[in-house]
Amino acid sequence: MKIRLTLALFLILSGCLFAADAAEAAKRWEQYGPSFKAFAEADTKNPPRKGGILFVGSSIFRQWASVADDMAPLPVLNRAFGGSRTGDQLARYAQVVPPYAPKVIVYYCGSNDLKAGATPEDPAAIFGRVREFSERVQKAQPGTRLIYVSSTRAPDRVSRWEQVDHFNALVRAYCAATPHHIYVDINPALIDHNGHPRLDLYKDDKLHFNPASYAQFTAVIKPVLQRVWNEVAASPVSSR
Question: Are 116 and 85 a contacting pair, CB within 8 Å?
Fold first, then answer.
């Protein structure tokens, strides 16, 4: 009797958790609807060039409104959507990546996973989804270059910097061991000479960046991206 009662409680609890997860997934799917509607309208109005450079990820990239100009003359398209987590990048993969057939992908996502909930998610689990994204790209488009930008040590999440550092270390090691993968650490450009976050770079939420702050991102990322793009352009496969 006790075993049956325990099993019944377990099934009820599992059902509640599943329903909660499904409701959360539906809510997040609806949340991103306007972004993808805007993407579709932009693509219809001005069809983007395929085989270029695709920026994907969460709001750190989405709010980089000047990225195409900052990276010019490199052929950059920004398809990041705000509030997204690594699982969302997988859920929306078919809409974000294949239509543009990018030869280079610049990826920033993971910060929202680390912040979500009362306690931070295991960095290894978050990294697992980053790796799955990479494997999808490699399977569909072998030879595509992937540039992973580190999760930022934002002032609003000092208590979770240990998890941020752990996650970044996993991504760094993966990129070092995987062909066509590059890890770019943006954090050194965001701190002062004492190693403290430069608060002048951040908005009031101490997470997102002021528009002018993206000059720091450009200074770090563009030289790497230019080198990778030159390699792609010189590749025999690319010239066919």
Answer: yes
Q: What is the DSSP string of 42-105?
A: HHHHSPPPTTSEEEEESHHHHT-TTHHHHTTTS-EEE---TT--HHHHHHTHHHHSGGG--SEE
The residue type at 61:
F
Residue 142 has which token pair? 């072998």
Write the CA distances from 149 to 9, 15, 30, 120, 174, integer angstroms. 44, 37, 27, 20, 13
- Domain range holding 12? 1-31
What sign for the dihedral angle of Cα 151, 166, 147, 109?
negative
Please state the separation of Cα 207 from the chain's center in Å: 15
* Separation of alpha carbons 59 and 64, rounded Å: 8
Mean pLDDT of the chain: 87
pLDDT in tens, 136-188: 999 999 999 999 999 999 999 888 999 999 999 999 999 999 999 999 999 99
The verdict on 104 and 160 lying in the same domain is yes
**pLDDT class of 2 with cuts at 50, 70, 90:** low
C-alpha closest to that of 63 among 205, 189, 191, 210: 210
13 within domain boundaries: yes
Q: How far is CA 211 from CA 38, 44, 81, in A?
A: 21, 27, 17
Q: How far apart are CA 64 and CA 70, in angstroms?
A: 9
Domain count for the chain: 2
